[in-house]
Amino acid sequence: MATTIQLEKRTKKRLERVKMFPRETYNQVIERLLEREREETLSPRTIRNIERALGDVKAGRTHSTKEVKKKLGIK
């Protein structure tokens, strides 16, 4: 279902500038921007987990794919 929204002229110009191709619709532009924003936003918990994982890697607390497969009985 389509709907109408109001944009300020400067906002519309900004959307025009981020189009990937001339015939890309504003809906496609907005969807792409929203998806990118969702992907780039990490929760504090995710950030802590990443930092912990990086610490494990730096400390050598890792296992090779071969070791994991062997432990799990995967060929």
Structural account:
Helices cover 63% and strands 0% of the residues. It is mainly alpha-helical and 75 residues long. The chain is built from 4 helices and no strands. The longest helix has 15 residues.
Question: Total helix count?
Answer: 4
**Residue-averaged pLDDT, rounded?**
91
Number of structurally distinct domains: 1
Largest sheet: none
Q: Roughly how many Å is the radius of gyration?
A: 22 Å
State the order of secondary-structure elements, H for helix, E for strand.
Answer: HHHH
In short:
With 75 residues, this protein is mainly α. The protein has one domain (9-72).
What key attributes describe this structure?
mainly alpha; 63% helix; 0% strand
List the helices and strands and how they pair.
Blueprint: H1 9-17, H2 26-40, H3 44-58, H4 65-72
